[in-house]
């Protein structure tokens, strides 16, 4: 497949297709038309066809997509046919919550280590991992060929930690710190700014109020 | 102000403006031009002016925006000048992480209760809250005039819980369950699908690889 530039908007929609197709598969459904998929996902059928055309269309021949095939293909496009080694930086509540979330492992996301700068946490077991001091991070990343670092640390330390990570050859940062990171462009960053998300919810609630519950 | 329809894309950017303006304010900066704001936020100056024009423009008169004023105004637009009462449904790791995140309270997001259907957790203290049984949820929402429910439960129970919530008159759901909810349109839903976000990161990492580290 040609590696043409695919918009981030399309890419952001792929996991949602993958999720719905997984559910259809679990329900034993073998084929689905773009119109049926459109009805359950609440996006237009033409949007679905356009999105899939970015990847060659997955060959709907008048009688629908093969659910199994489509699920596998989108999984493969997302890179879920490979495993990815991850570390968590910040062993607070959020770091522990992510470490304990089993569903990630099923998708090939393997948590290999967890780090914190609080000595009281060192040695504490979180699943199969012992919390390690931040000083050991660089060596651990290199020795264990870690692909992705999950940042669940306060924003004050996020900049310096991401600079250190950049020098280790890490490939991606999943950033929960409430700040935008500045890293070389060969490192992919995906932000989860929880406060931003909550503020957006608040705005939408209040704008309904102001319209007199339209 | 006229309540014209403002696109979700603009609304999604407001918290980020708010965050950067808060930092400028903390640094003691009083004025900033759209060009300077553009440089630090890495969006175009014309995007910034267009976004702000949705709210009347905030009157940049050739010598920049007043940081303080802009910060207050965007906070007011987002509804951060009011308090919002919240409950958490699901007292697992993620629910506890959110309950313990102090920054939310500073913005007027007040956690009032936390619920779980696991009897072993009932009565356990998380900050000032005791975990309560799910059976008490409806009455609690009504008595305490709860605005927002945070769903940190598995996807299997998310549909039935959100139906129960819809009948209580709740105004918003902040949904961490890995499923899209189906609720009446007067209830605002904001999704945080963590797996989707991680898959997007994986895709971006792999597409760099496929291009031979472009």
Topology of this protein?
2 copies of one chain form a homodimer.
Chain A: H1 8-26, E1 31-32, H2 34-41, H3 45-53, E2 65-66, H4 67-78, E3 84-89, H5 93-99, H6 103-106, E4 109-116, E5 125-126, E6 129-133, H7 137-143, E7 148-151, H8 155-166, E8 172-175, E9 188-191, H9 194-210
Provide a descriptive summary of the structure in words.
The structure is a homodimer of 214-residue chains. Chain A folds into 2 domains: 8-78, Arc Repressor Mutant, subunit A; 84-196, 3-Layer(aba) Sandwich (Rossmann fold). Chain A contains 9 helices and 9 strands. Chain A has helices at residues 8-26, 34-41, 45-53, 67-78, 93-99, 103-106, 137-143, 155-166, 194-210, and strands spanning 31-32, 65-66, 84-89, 109-116, 125-126, 129-133, 148-151, 172-175, 188-191. In chain A, the strands form 2 sheets. Chain A has a 7-stranded mixed sheet, sandwiched between helices. A two-stranded antiparallel sheet of chain A has the order 1-2. In chain A, helix 1 (8-26) packs across helix 4 (67-78) and helix 2 crosses helix 3 (45-53). The first copy, chain A, is globular. At the A-B interface, helix 1, helix 5, strand 9 and helix 9 of A face helix 1, helix 5, strand 9 and helix 9 of B.
Brief characterization of the structure:
The structure is a homodimer of 214-residue chains. The first copy, chain A, is of the alpha/beta class and 214 residues long.
């Amino acid at each position: 497949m040609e590696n043409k530039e695919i918009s981030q908007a399309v890419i952001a929609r792929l996991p949602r297709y993958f999720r719905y197709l997984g559910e259809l598969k679990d329900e034993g459904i073998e084929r689905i038309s773009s119109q049926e998929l459109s009805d359950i996902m609440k996006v237009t059928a033409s949007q679905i066809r356009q999105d899939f055309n970015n990847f060659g269309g997955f060959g709907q021949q008048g009688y629908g997509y093969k659910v199994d095939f489509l699920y596998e293909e989108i999984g493969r496009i997302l890179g879920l046919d490979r495993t990815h080694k991850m570390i968590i930086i910040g062993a607070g509540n959020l770091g522990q919550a992510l470490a304990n979330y089993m569903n990630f492992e099923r998708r090939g996301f393997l948590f290999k280590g967890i780090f914190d700068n609080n000595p009281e946490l060192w040695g504490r077991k979180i699943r199969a991992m012992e919390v390690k001091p931040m000083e050991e991070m660089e060596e651990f990343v290199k020795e264990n060929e870690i692909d992705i670092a999950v940042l669940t640390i306060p924003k004050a330390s996020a900049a310096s930690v991401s600079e250190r990570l950049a020098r280790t050859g890490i490939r991606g940062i999943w950033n929960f710190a409430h700040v935008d990171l500045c890293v070389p462009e060969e490192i992919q960053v995906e932000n989860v700014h929880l406060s931003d998300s909550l503020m957006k919810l608040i705005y939408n609630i209040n704008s309904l109020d102001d319209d007199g519950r339209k």
